[in-house]
Design brief:
The protein is an alpha/beta fold. The protein has four helices and seven strands, in the order αββαββββαβα. Strands 1-2-5-4-3 form a five-stranded mixed sheet, with helices on one face. It has a two-stranded parallel sheet with strand order 6-7. The radius of gyration is 17 Å and the shape is globular. It starts with a helix and ends in a 6-residue tail after the last helix.
């Protein structure tokens, strides 16, 4: 299967909301879904192309929101599902009920980016020590201007 064929199947068969679906090559597909639909999309992927492998879950602070990226391999295609979580919401449903292998990846995202995985079966810290300051997340962008004041170029 090619990435284009996979995207066509998603567009024809997926019952949830799609924000965007595209390919970047014949083996790379990207799907953007609302945060509320991420568990439904993960279930769809797991059912549509077994066996599916969850490679990892990563996250990125783009300044306005936290992008959670779920990296799957489905039928030879690298499929990335992206959900953008607004920083003022800071929560997304766990995908562990449909993808049990997500348990450690989601704990890592919670530790490093501070996004709560609602319904996660084991939300303990994974990487950071227990005495790490609450609200301090190593992969969150920090506005240097806010912390240090405006830069003086004169």
């Amino acid at each position: 299967m090619t990435a284009s064929e996979l995207i066509e199947q998603v567009q024809e068969q997926y019952q949830g909301e799609l924000i965007q679906a595209r390919t970047s090559s014949e083996v790379d597909a990207w799907i953007d879904v609302p945060p509320a639909d991420v568990q439904q999309m993960a279930g769809f992927i797991m059912d549509a192309w077994p066996p599916v492998h969850l490679s990892t879950i990563t996250g990125y602070d783009n300044g306005r929101e936290i992008e959670i990226l779920y990296h799957f391999v489905a039928d030879g295609v690298s499929l990335t599902v992206r959900a953008a979580v607004p920083k003022d919401v800071n929560r997304i449903d766990t995908i562990t009920p449909v993808v049990p292998a997500a348990v450690l990846y989601e704990r890592e995202v919670m530790d490093l980016l501070g996004v709560t995985m609602v319904g996660h079966p084991d939300p303990r810290r994974l990487l950071l020590p227990e005495d790490w300051p609450e609200g301090d997340y190593p992969l969150r962008r920090h506005d240097v201007e806010d912390e240090e004041g405006p830069e003086d170029n004169g």
